[in-house]
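look at this:
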Amino acid sequence: MRPALGFLSGLVFGLGLVISGMANPAKVLNFLDLAGTWDPSLAFVMAGATATAFLGYRLVWRRAAPALETAFDVPTSTRIDRPLIAGAALFGTGWGIGGFCPGPAWTALPLLAPGTLIFLPAMLVGLWLGARAKSLDIFAPKRALQ
């Protein structure tokens, strides 16, 4: 049951990305271009997503446990640290340069657009490099020698 619901959720998400235009990098880049050919239509997509998430969280948090698990999997850290800021900056920079974030990039893959065929492999390499850097503690704060 869980895989079927996961597939259905992903399908609805992907269809929403395609219908809203989020799978079109030109539309995303026009939304990000405030000084040029700004296209405000994606603001409505984001407002709808924000409202849906807000209502969804309000309904879900009333439950003692999720429908398909025994407990909620909630992050325990609330710290804003250097790796979080660096990751957010890299994510935003990649989105601004390529016009894609990961979800819409996967959704646009069947279209075989050249940008998608470059972005996805680069994203996967970046994910691998990030995991490698994390395993080597490259981003850990340096401790003074005693």
Observations:
- The mean pLDDT is 85.
- Residues 2-135 form one domain.
- The helical segments are 2-20, 25-32, 41-60, 82-98, 102-108, 114-135.
- The chain has one domain: 2-135.
